Amino acid sequence: MAMPKQPIRAVLTDIEGTTSSISFVKDVLFPFARARLAGFVAEHADEPAVAEALDAARALAGDATLDRDATVALLIAWIDEDRKATPLKALQGMIWEDGYRSGQLVGDIYPDAAEQLARWRNEGLVLYVYSSGSVLAQKLIFGHTAAGDLTPLFSGYFDTTVGLKTDHASYAAIAEVIGLPPQAILFLSDNIRELDAAAEIGMATIALDRGEVVMPPGQPHPVAKTFDAIDAPAGRLKASAS
Ligand SMILES: CSCCC(=O)C(=O)COP(=O)(O)O
Ligand SMILES: [Mg+2]
Fold it and tell me: Which of 19, 47, 129, 163 has the least CB density, counted as fewest CB within 10 Å?
């Protein structure tokens, strides 16, 4: 006998390429952090969170003897190759904090994402974020948008300290923390490998195609161009969009 489909009770969303443009992350956020990394490290290297991130970067590189300059050079190389390394993401978040608080950075959230997230929350869904950006960076981008502070919409945030976004175990751990079966969670992302990992443990999935990258042909997830096309409580595209 076929199991009845679980109603969706939570939405888990990616940021870059999903709620926010890839160009904002690549052309605004990454260069902002890149230009300030050496100065930030020189000024804050003795603070525990910074020292911990620098040590973690050295450990990831497999060379605990790297001096400060060599570690900064390594981190800059990681920015240039868009490496989703947890210590780099921690430092980027700390550097962006100054930019958001001073008004130099404004969180770029697609209006359709902001509107639909608010609507889904009003409809009783609980909302969570899962991004390679650190939890601090996630709170900053949603906390400093042109439409104001969107952080009250969210019940929680997950970053790569829970595991890689392409690893199905990360989604199992997130479902456990949320306290819902994976089948009751809808995951939204522009990255097919992330969606595959979430689907592997039974989450409902929808791919976002914001027109900045080409979707691989034949990939198995329903595709939405905007959040308007998504029927989140049903965990699928609206009939008018499919
Ligand atoms: C939190 S904004 C910066 C996002 C970021 O650093 C990044 O690498 C984007 O990864 P995502 O998992 O949101 O696609
Ligand atoms: Mg993404």
Answer: 47
Q: Is 170's C-beta closer than 6 angstroms to any atom of ligand 1?
A: no
Ligand 1 atom nearest 137 alpha carbon: 1
CA atoms within 13 A on the CB side of 127: 23
Ligand closest in space to the Cα of 130: 1
Burial environment of residue 6 by CB neighbours within 10 A (0 to 12, 13 to 18, 19 or more): middle
pLDDT tens column, 64-110: 999 999 999 999 999 999 999 999 999 999 999 999 999 999 999 99
Residue of 34, 94, 128, 131 best suited for mutating to test ligand 1, as the one with most atoms within 8 Å of CB: 131
Range of the domain at 84: 24-102
What CATH number did the domain enclosing 181 receive?
Answer: 3.40.50.1000
Task: Name the closest ligand to CA 166.
Answer: 1
Closest CA to ligand 1's atom 5: 133
The Cα–Cα gap between 46 and 183 comes to 45
Pair 90, 180 in one domain: no
* Number of other residues whose CB lies within 10 A of the CB of residue 170: 21
Phi-psi region of 103 (alpha: psi -120 to 50; beta: other; left: phi over 0): left
ipTM entry: 0.97
User: In the chain, how many domains are there?
Assistant: 2
Residue 43: CB atoms within 10 Å: 11
The residue type at 116: Q
**What's the pTM value of the predicted model, to 2 decimals?**
0.95
Verify whether ligand 1 is closer than 6 Å to residue 137 (CB atom): yes
CATH number at residue 30: 1.10.720
Measured from the Cα of 190, ligand 1's closest atom is: 14
